[in-house]
Amino acid sequence: MSQFQSPKQLKTIKGALQIPYKSVRSQGEVNESDCSDDDEEEDLDDIFSYDPGSNANSFVSSRLPRETKVEIKSSDGRIHPCTGRFPLTQTFWEVEVKMANGWLKQAPKYFILNDAERIRQTNMVTIFLSECLAKEKDLNEKENAVKACFETFCRNSGEQNKLSFETLEGMLKKYLKLEKTGCCLQKFAGGSYGRHAVEDHSQYMMYVIGSELGSVVLLAASHPKLVSTSSELLPYSFTQFLHRLRQCSIFRNVNSASPVEGSLVKAKKQAFEESTTVDQKVKDADEMARLSPWEFAFKDIIARKLKIYGTEARLQAYIQGGYFSRIPEKEKDAMYIYEVLKEDARRNGNMYLEFNKLRNSFILRKLSYAISGDQRWADALNYLETNNVIKREVFNYTINIFLRANWQAEVDTAEAINQVLYRHRMEPLQWDIDLSSTDFNYLRQDDDQRKATQLICQMPITVLSGKGGCGKTTVVTKLLKHLCDM
Asked: Which of 131, 149, 200, 277 has the fewest CB atoms found within 10 Å of its own CB?
């Protein structure tokens, strides 16, 4: 049995999220036996910063949600309590979950609520606006005024009965254009706008349009397949992924470095109002979700097609979601080969695998997957190499398979070493360092550290090896500090 085999006796529930309970445990207190093993080996370091208005590369990192207890109301009216990691818990979402004994066992699949009558009766759009505006500390006193202004616009434009998440983006565009000509509170509410200030509230509505939640909701309304697929395949990064995708689409030509105060907001408002067509990147992502979901398994393909970096779907997500019955054999083989190469690099630190070792890999056998015949191997490897996922090189008549990123790192390292050696030949490095200095008193107590220091001073390149704690870092830092102080 595959280590990724889905648990049996799982109950599938689809329904609307109800008012959620508070988080039942903090992230550090989670009992791993209670949760899906979907959390294993997830990289949670948020190491990238990003300005959505810039044309810089778009990096996405994984974020592990807290374990939360929610209630799901299915179409038959039954309430199903469920505890697990839900990235989104707002009541305007419908989810499809697989659960056992009240515990979430796989990533939830998200759909925006499309019951127009319920949306109007429960003021779901207003709740959505509140969720987005409440995250901005600067808007504590403005939130109610912004909502009141938009509601006034909806009532007086005759659009209130048509308001839903599917129509929201179009209504926001109309509102922004009208609000620029004068505050809707003053135009339509007369003197009944209470303590709310009469001003251009459209500038604050940009916090909704530019927020992560705003991006996900508006995409869920316009491209439901993209959101449901990415939420299942990229459970801990899909909100960031969709946000980057949408923000780059709308604001790709907006200069985020504008020195004029307020000009960035103005430029973004204009870009949103004029965005009459869906950007090609969003179309490409939606097409991937509908026609080639396996491409989400390869971060190199995501980077090339969508210019989104740092995320990819795990093999486990495809198995649990039942995707493999719809994936062609070549692409399926490629996904397993890619999994073996990544796992071998993680476990053993190998930069590459010989082809024969790859074919007979223990990891592949453990996954209970067989790729039979030379043609299947050739097709899968060609697919991976064509998409810049791997690189094949021949050493001594042996084919070696690299992950492309590892191969590039090796090439870059070799080029850097060659440059150092070339410069040393043209102009030999000469460091006039007095090793009898008091800076090196500590190093002189250890013969290996003293010899290593001498070698670094004499040779253009020195390789230090040794077990942890033997002093490699100490030698380098002491020497560099001495050079800096000279």
From this structure: 277
Helix boundaries (H) for 223-328? 224-233, 238-251, 263-273, 280-291, 299-306, 315-320
Q: Where are the domains of the chain?
A: 11-118+212-315, 136-209, 329-407, 431-485
pLDDT single digits (tens) 142-157: 888 888 888 888 888 8
Q: Positive or negative CA dihedral for 315, 318, 319, 324?
A: negative
Domain 329-407 CATH assignment equals 1.10.10.10: yes
CA distance 148 to 144: 6
Q: What is the pLDDT of residues 366-423, one digit of tens each?
A: 999 999 999 999 999 999 999 999 999 999 899 999 999 999 999 999 999 999 999 9
Place of tokens 């791993």: 32
User: Which residues touch 305 (CB under 8 Å, ≥6 apart)?
Assistant: 281, 284, 285, 288, 295
* Alpha helices (H) along 79-138: 116-121, 124-134
- The DSSP code sequence of 11-49 is EEEEEEE-SPPPEEE-GGG--GGGS-GGGTT--------
- The pLDDT-based confidence of 88 (bands split at 50, 70, 90) is very high
More confident residue, 175 or 274: 175
Beta bridge partners of 403: 390
Measured between alpha carbons, how far is residue 449 from residues 66, 431, 458, 479, 482 in Å? 47, 18, 14, 11, 15
CA distance 132 to 74: 27
